[in-house]
Design a protein that fits this description.
Structural class: alpha+beta
Strand order of the largest sheet: 7-10-8-9-13
Family: Belongs to the ITPK1 family.
Distance between the termini: 8 Å
Protein name: Inositol-tetrakisphosphate 1-kinase
Helix content: 25-40%
Organism: Petromyzon marinus (Sea lamprey)
GO molecular function: ATP binding; inositol-1,3,4-trisphosphate 5-kinase activity; inositol-1,3,4-trisphosphate 6-kinase activity; inositol-3,4,5,6-tetrakisphosphate 1-kinase activity; magnesium ion binding
Number of helices: 10
GO cellular component, one term: cytoplasm
Strand content: 15-25%
Length: 329
């Protein structure tokens, strides 16, 4: 291992951090850098205005280029240059660990592709009572109600369903709706994904993965609805307004006769899902959104996110530093 000397400290490796905005604040760079320093690991914040090739070599490169990747796919020339420079840099350094691979992030940026991956894991022999499950879904490329009904029938999607943007990193990716019947199909704006709504007592389990470790926290979610088609107005919501901590949305208030206690999360199931996703995607920093069906206790993955916000994970800096320490040995 190549060492570097900075003052009196001899570092045995460099870690580059390419993360912007709130995600960078969530990481608490100062704390993280200090913990890494104690392990003789130097943490460098990438200067995003300069080519990577001018910033030296790294043993590990941690990034969140989701916005740039999405913008590049829409024809943004600046974003395209950033992604091309990043790809050229990592290609020229095959021994460097990238957290996480661009191909994996590309998968997670597309909800349809991500859900299809989870469905393949489910159909690969793991769909037991405690196996990997995802609610029935279908990609919608049409706004024609008749075609949508046919597609729903083909893919087992039932009313009510949640309608989400296909792209997981678009400006409106957190804007969703619950559609209850054919009348609501006029609200569909393709391309999008329709996912059967599973009653889960308004509780969302947020699973945060850091290398080989994970932790989960409870968030409020959308309340229960009667199953089957009925003539109700479409419910529009922003997931951050409903599921973020310290939010009090009327959409999360259960009816009086409904049980207020959340169904427990099975740690063995989470362990299985996390390892399956890591094996399939080679990801280190990922978030998994899980719901537990009211009554049956069946667990469902409803979303997977690249480098989520770890602001509610106080162990994040220590866990990530430990993981880097283990891969640099």
């Amino acid at each position: 291992m190549v060492t570097r000397v900075a003052g009196a400290m001899t570092f045995r490796g460099r870690v580059g951090i390419w993360v912007s905005g709130t995600k960078l604040r969530d990481m608490d760079m100062e704390e993280f850098a200090e913990i890494c320093r104690e392990k003789k690991i130097e943490v460098i914040k990438i200067n995003q205005t300069r080519p990577l090739s001018e910033q030296g070599s790294f043993q590990v490169l941690i990034h969140r280029l989701t916005e740039e990747m999405h913008n590049a796919s829409t024809g943004d020339t600046r974003a395209r240059r950033i992604i091309d420079d990043f790809q050229e840099y990592i290609t020229s350094r095959p021994g460097m660990l990238v957290m996480d691979p661009l191909d994996s992030i590309k998968t997670l940026l597309d909800r349809g592709v991500t859900y299809s991956l989870i469905r393949r894991l489910q159909q690969g022999g793991t769909a037991t009572d405690d196996g990997i499950c995802i609610p029935n879904f279908v990609e919608l490329k049409t706004s024609d109600p008749g075609e949508i009904c046919n597609l729903m029938a083909q893919h087992g999607v039932t009313f009510p369903f949640v309608c989400k943007t296909k792209v997981a990193e678009a400006n409106n990716s957190n804007e969703m709706m619950v559609i209850f019947g054919r009348r609501g199909l006029r609200e569909v704006r393709p391309p999008c994904v329709a996912q059967s709504f599973i009653n889960h007592n308004a509780v969302l389990h947020k699973v945060y993965v850091v290398g080989t470790r994970w932790v989960h926290s409870l968030r409020l979610s959308i309340k229960n609805f009667p199953q089957g088609e009925h003539d109700a107005d479409t419910v529009f919501f922003h997931s951050h307004e409903v599921c973020k901590p310290n939010k009090n949305s009327p959409l999360s208030v259960l009816d009086d006769e409904e049980p207020p206690m959340p169904m427990p999360l099975c740690e063995r199931w989470v362990h299985k899902v996390v390892h399956a996703l890591q094996d399939a995607l080679h990801v280190t920093l990922v978030g998994v959104d899980v719901i537990v069906e009211n009554g049956t206790g069946r667990h469902y993955v409803i979303d997977v996110n690249a480098l989520p916000s770890y602001d509610c994970v106080p162990e994040f800096s220590e866990w990530l530093a430990d993981y880097l320490n283990s891969v640099m040995k």
